[in-house]
Design brief:
With 143 residues, the chain is an all-beta fold. 0% of the residues lie in helices and 56% in strands.
C-alpha cells in the first residue's frame, strides 16, 4: 500500500456567491477513475477569496458532493479564520484548506466537487473574490 497511481488537479477562478443555506456548486471539481476497488483517494486543496457580508454569526460552510450523493466532507464553519471590518460590515475569511482520505470502492469514475452555503441563511457568502484561484487535487493511492 502507498504507491501513488494517479494524480488529477483542477483549479477555478470564477467568483461564486449565495445567500441560501442549501449547498450550491462553486465550480471547483475534479474526477478520476480508480484503477482498483481497494484504492484510496486523497482529496485536498484550498478555496481562496472567501468572505461573508454582514456581521451576524459565522455564515460560511464548504461541502463536498461525490457523484451527486451530497456527501458532507468539509461542512464546517470557519469562525476565526479572518477578521471583521466594522466599516464595511464584511467578515473576511481568506483561504480555507481542506483534505480527506476517501475509499470509493469502485472502478467507475468518481467526481468530487466543492460546494458553498450560508450557514445562517443571512448575508451573502463568496468564494474566489479579488481574482483568487481555488484548487483541488485527487491522488489515487494503491491498496
Amino acid at each position: 500500500m502507498g504507491k501513488v497511481l494517479q494524480v488529477v488537479a483542477a483549479n477555478h477562478t470564477t467568483s461564486v456567491s449565495t445567500t441560501t443555506s442549501t449547498f450550491v456548486d462553486t465550480g471547483l471539481t475534479a474526477s478520476l477513475t480508480p484503477a482498483g476497488t481497494g484504492s484510496k483517494i486523497l482529496v485536498y486543496g484550498t478555496v481562496n477569496g472567501c468572505r461573508k457580508d454582514g456581521s451576524t454569526g459565522v455564515g460560511l460552510a464548504l461541502g463536498e458532493d461525490i457523484g451527486g450523493a451530497g456527501y458532507s466532507l468539509f461542512q464546517n464553519t470557519f469562525e476565526g479564520l479572518g477578521g471583521y471590518d466594522a466599516g464595511t460590515g464584511v467578515q473576511l475569511f481568506g483561504s480555507v484548506g481542506f483534505g480527506a482520505l476517501r475509499s470509493p470502492s469502485t472502478t467507475s469514475a468518481v467526481s468530487y466537487k466543492i460546494q458553498l452555503k450560508s450557514t445562517l441563511n443571512t448575508g451573502t457568502v463568496y468564494t474566489n473574490q479579488s481574482t483568487c484561484v481555488s484548487w483541488i487535487v485527487l491522488m489515487e493511492i494503491a491498496a
